Amino acid sequence: MRLYGDPVLRRKAKPLQATDTLTVPGFGPQTVRQVANTMLETMFEARGVGLAAPQVGLNARLFVAVEYEDDEEENEGQDTPLRSRVLREYVMLNPVLKVIDKKKDRSYQEGCLSIPGIYEEGVPRARAVQVSYTDLDGTARTVEADDYLARVFQHEADHLDGVFFLDRLPPEVTEDHRGELLKMQRHAKRYLEDLAAAEKEAEKHRKENL
């Protein structure tokens, strides 16, 4: 999981096709379907409700999300497997959001798997959206969502444009969490250094075995 401070989380992600082969940093080439399945498993393990490709180091316009049986905090009931509460899973390639209810909702608490431990209320989100996207079979689809699910889709779509939920709150909110965010930035830097070293070592071994 990439944390706040990792440059990939601030980039505008690139479009992709269902037939593409993706290379997740630190892993070998995978199909889009394989990546999506891994992202869903990662999301469930982290007890989340959505996960965007940049959060696993991929600069691709892809996110996964789930609709649960209720809108309770996903971290409640730690002993209950989240998959048992899932009504529907979503895998969206190149999602395009259209607001269908412009009235803003600020009632839900929002968090992010890339900013663990920080939760804030008051993030303004459209009450209802329509999402056009491509599924894993390459089929164009459209879905409408309101309230909590609409918020999830907007949150994940933000990640594809390099936007965090904290960016949608007054600057002083981010400043209040400055200490925690600086720790995440240091962790992100160390992870990237370790990843680069591992990739360099792997390349060295490949050359030696040619």
Please, could you describe this protein's structure?
Its cofactor is Fe(2+). It catalyses: N-terminal N-formyl-L-methionyl-[peptide] + H2O = N-terminal L-methionyl-[peptide] + formate. One of its GO terms (biological process) is translation. Keywords: Coiled coil, Hydrolase, Iron, Metal-binding, Protein biosynthesis. Helices cover 30% and strands 27% of the residues. The chain is an alpha+beta fold and 210 residues long. It has a single domain, classed as Peptide deformylase (Peptide Deformylase). The strands form 3 sheets. It has a 5-stranded antiparallel β-sheet. A two-stranded antiparallel ribbon has the order 1-2. Strand 1 and strand 2 (29-31) form a beta hairpin.
The CATH topology assignment is Peptide Deformylase
| CATH architecture field | Alpha-Beta Complex
Q: Total domains, how many?
A: 1
Kindly report the average pLDDT value.
91
Kindly report the spatial arrangement of strands forming the biggest sheet. 3-4-5-8-9
Concise description?
The protein is an alpha+beta fold.
What key phrases describe this protein's structure?
210 residues; alpha+beta; Peptide Deformylase; two-stranded antiparallel ribbon; 4 helices; globular; hydrolase; Peptide_deformylase_sf; peptide deformylase activity; protein biosynthesis
List the helices and strands and how they pair.
Layout: E1 21-23, E2 29-31, H1 32-45, E3 50-52, E4 62-68, E5 86-105, E6 109-110, E7 120-121, E8 125-134, E9 140-146, H2 147-159, H3 171-176, H4 178-208
Antiparallel strand pairs: 1-2, 3-4, 4-5, 5-8, 6-7, 8-9
